[in-house]
Write a structure and sequence with these properties.
By secondary structure, the chain is of the alpha/beta class. Helix content is about 35%, strand content about 20%. The strands form four sheets. Strands 5-4-1-13-14 form a five-stranded parallel β-sheet, with helices on both faces. A hairpin with a 2-residue loop joins strand 2 (about 15-20) and strand 3 (about 20).
Length: about 230
């Protein structure tokens, strides 16, 4: 089934690594694919890093040959511009999320100015407070579209443990505001298409490898790719 695959798009959190620790055999398997001439790109729903940050981590963790890594932050500001035009954005998330929103030409608002928001952008926020959660919910309830890199409920870390993912925050805001989010990352198609373009492949000759049925497998199939579900022993 995979013998004629010329490239693989691989999820990271939970699949290649847990926090800062590579999964057993990940480096050897991925390096073997690379040495065999198969294209390898990495696709993660991380809402706190850009592709360059991910490549730096991959290189540090023994995958120095890696050259293609994508996160939703690559396109989030563009998606907001295309769907809603230049916007006043209330950002609940990491500084990296606010930076890509500003770089796309949008105004990033302080929490105190949430009533001025025309868009709410939510990613994983390690400094979350009830005030920030309430501001996002109230802005979204007032009509500001809710945009997020992902709706993944958990962020896998070392030793099989996890932290609440950005999707857990989005779920709280969505429930309080009574609105559905616009999802930029997996399982939506754009990042899969960009990964395939970077590999120079069509979907029929590439496979998506990941540990999430809802995000990786559904997204890969939606993009027309073959899929491989990673299930740790």
């Amino acid at each position: 089934m995979l013998a004629d695959c010329r490239g693989f798009v691989v999820d990271l959190d939970g699949c290649v690594w847990q926090g800062d620790v590579l999964n057993p055999g990940a480096s050897e398997a991925l390096t073997a694919l690379h040495r065999a001439g198969r294209g390898v790109a990495f696709l993660t729903n991380n809402s706190r890093a850009r592709g360059a940050d991910i490549l730096t981590k991959l290189h540090r963790l023994s995958l120095g040959w890696a050259e293609h890594a994508l996160t939703p932050l690559e396109i989030l500001g563009q998606v907001v511009a295309e769907r809603f035009g230049p916007s006043r954005v209330l950002v609940i998330g990491a500084p990296e999320l606010a930076a890509v929103v500003a770089a796309a030409g949008h105004e990033v608002l302080e929490v105190a100015d949430f009533r001025k928001a025309t868009v709410v952008a939510i990613g994983n926020d390690f400094d979350l407070s009830y005030e920030r959660l309430a501001a996002a919910a109230r802005a979204a309830a007032a009509g500001a579209p809710l945009v997020t890199p992902n709706i993944d409920p958990r962020l896998p870390i070392e030793n099989g443990d996890f932290l609440p993912g950005g999707g857990a925050l989005v779920a709280a805001v969505s429930a309080a505001a009574g609105v559905a989010p616009v999802v930029v990352g997996k399982p939506e198609p754009p990042l899969f298409r960009i990964a395939l373009r970077r590999l120079g492949l069509d979907s029929a000759h590439a496979a998506m490898v990941g540990d999430s049925v809802e995000s990786d497998i559904a997204g890969g199939r939606g993009a027309g790719m073959r899929t491989v579900l990673y299930a740790p022993a």
